[in-house]
From TrEMBL:
Signal peptide start and end residues: none
Name of the protein: ABC transporter ATP-binding protein
Record-level GO BP terms: L-amino acid transport
Transmembrane segments: none
């Protein structure tokens, strides 16, 4: 019997102040897969990730991790189950150094030296900046640090919310090359982006989200019609 997918969202409704902004989201992330949620500003992409990460309760529907329904699990419980969310805005501590940001992740993972080594191996630019205050890094370097922190927990699923936000295209390409490398090592990835081009080469599958609905799921290349409609209509 095949093992269940790593993560499934089933008919998720969720929102704020009693008003749903997600209207029945179904999404599956298989082991070792790179799955993208694409859609315009306000479509509900971040809200979907918040429900998955245990930061926002669903008003109905199920969150299933490795075949187990885990509705209402707290964020730290989900982290123990191998889910790591890197939020929009990146979630690093700007007043701490790069090294201090990395060291914070070692209580449930490998030792400090190992975390530093892995971070530098993946992101050589961080090597010379270990003692730099994180808030003074470039945007791309901050995203590298956020990813290095997330990967230090050795997650089964890395969730990336708008990795590309505010970054130059060449920096984004670089970060996505790392995403592809991480996926090739067997880590599943769920990523959210507003703009589709950059994920076409990295994602195995993608869902187009508009106004709290997923309007199509498929290979990224096959979604161009629904994507252009999503942006024109959105
Ligand atoms: P973005 O690119 O802006 O992050 P998104 O697709 O991630 O877009 P969400 O952030 O999930 O969209 O927002 C979906 C809807 O929920 C929007 O109408 C937004 O205004 C609303 N919303 C998001 N966060 C909150 C909140 N904390 N309180 C109330 N409404 C919210």
């Amino acid at each position: 019997e095949a093992p269940p997918p790593l993560v499934e969202l089933r008919a998720i409704h969720a929102g704020y102040d009693g008003i749903d902004v997600l209207h029945g989201i179904d999404l599956t992330v298989g082991r070792g897969r790179v799955v993208a949620i694409l859609g315009p500003n306000g479509a509900g992409k971040s809200t979907t990730l918040k429900v998955l990460a245990g930061l926002l309760p669903a008003s109905s529907g199920d969150v299933v991790v490795a075949g187990r329904r885990i509705n209402g699990a707290r964020a730290d419980d989900l982290a123990r189950r191998g889910l790591c969310l890197i939020p929009e805005g990146r979630g690093i501590f700007p007043n701490l150094t790069v090294r201090e940001n990395l060291w914070m992740m070692t209580h449930r993972g490998p030792a400090r030296a190992e975390v530093e080594e892995q971070a530098v191996a993946r992101f050589p630019q961080l090597g010379a900046r270990m003692d730099q205050t994180s808030g003074t890094l470039s945007g791309g370097q901050q995203q590298m640090l956020a990813m290095a922190r997330g990967l230090a927990t050795e997650p089964a699923l890395l969730v990336l919310d708008e990795l590309s936000m505010g970054l130059a295209p060449i920096v984004v390409d670089d970060l996505y090359a790392t995403v592809a490398a991480v996926a090739a090592e067997g880590t599943s990835i769920l990523l959210v982006e507003q703009f589709a081009r950059i994920v076409m080469d990295v994602a195995h599958e993608a869902s187009v989200m508009v106004h709290g609905h997923i309007v199509q799921t498929g290979r990224p290349r096959d979604l161009e019609a629904s994507l252009s409609q999503a942006y024109l209509g959105g």
